[in-house]
Amino acid sequence: MKIEGSVALVTGANRGIGKSIVEALRDRGAARIYATARDVGALASLVATDPERIVPLALDVTDRAAVRAAAEKAKDVTVLVNNAGTAQFTGFLSTDDPAAAQADMDVNYFGTLSMIRAFAPKLKANGGGAIVNLASIASFVNFPVLASYSASKAANHSLTQGVRAELKAQGTLVVGVYPGPIDTDMAKDFDAPKAPPEQVATAILDAVASGTEDVFPDETAAGLHAGLQSDPKGTEQQVGEMLPG
Ligand SMILES: NC(=O)c1ccc[n+]([C@@H]2O[C@H](COP(=O)([O-])OP(=O)(O)OC[C@H]3O[C@@H](n4cnc5c(N)ncnc54)[C@H](OP(=O)(O)O)[C@@H]3O)[C@@H](O)[C@H]2O)c1
After folding, report:
1. Could you tell me if the CB of 11 is within 6 A of ligand 1?
2. pLDDT tens string for the chain (245 positions)?
3. Whose CA is nearest to atom 9 of ligand 1?
4. How far is the CA of 175 from the centre of ligand 1 (A)?
5. pTM of the prediction?
6. 53 in Cβ contact with 30 (< 8 Å)
7. Partners of residue 176 on adjacent β-strands
8. 152 lines ligand 1 (CB under 6 A)
9. Ligand 1 atom index nearest CA of 186
10. Going from the N-terminus, what domains does the chain have, and what CATH number goes with each?
11. C-alpha triplet 155, 156, 157: angle, nearest 5°
């Protein structure tokens, strides 16, 4: 579908990859972009770059009432970008407290699920459109330093496949995005080469425009994905060496 003239909504738009996606949508001629964030004040400088087209909305994706209200306010959406995410840098066995694992699941899986449930009927009414889910290369192989995060992103990938099948009849393109390390706050303590968030944003909009379902936007993600095809066990063992400190 065409980006020019589309109406997009991006979660977690105040920083990182989400902010870059809003900027890319703006630069490629989207008609309206709902930039959403938990703290709407954090969107001020982004909105100021094009206040006619960038509409700020307060939205915590774990608040189901707020998600439903956002879908009523942004009824005209044709491209939904589920970007909001959290990452706890812990192993499965680093703690007995389920809170960290729960937090990643609440945002990365249940939050994305709530958004899709609320917006799927709007996309249908608007001709089908597209949903973009920010998963991770950790959807396919567990990174022990990010153990529960990897599990939540595996769930996000499964959600992406399932809704793609369920929404096929209404003509909604469902895109899964599987980045490796990207240079944002989330990965600031992860010691590895990182691609810029603008590269992810460009790859996402190219995929929506061309109808591509699976996106590996950076060299690390593409390399690991290739490794998982050619040598799945070897790749699992290589990634498994990244143990929590
Ligand atoms: N950076 C990487 O290496 C990397 C790699 C693979 C995939 N990803 C995925 O890409 C997406 C964006 O990540 P990023 O690197 O840009 O991370 P980031 O810089 O940490 O930004 C995360 C964004 O998500 C928002 N968020 C967190 N919890 C939320 C909630 N409950 N409701 C609404 N928004 C919420 C944050 O808002 P606040 O400012 O309010 O906290 C922030 O805007 C995530 O889904 C992430 O898992 C990132």
Report:
1. yes
2. 999 999 999 999 999 999 999 999 999 999 999 999 999 999 999 999 999 999 999 999 999 999 999 999 999 999 999 999 999 999 999 888 889 899 999 999 999 999 999 999 999 999 999 999 999 999 999 999 999 999 999 999 999 999 999 999 999 999 999 999 999 999 998 989 999 999 999 999 999 999 999 999 999 999 999 999 999 999 999 999 999 98
3. 134
4. 17
5. 0.98
6. yes
7. 133, 214
8. no
9. 20
10. 7-240 (3.40.50.720)
11. 90
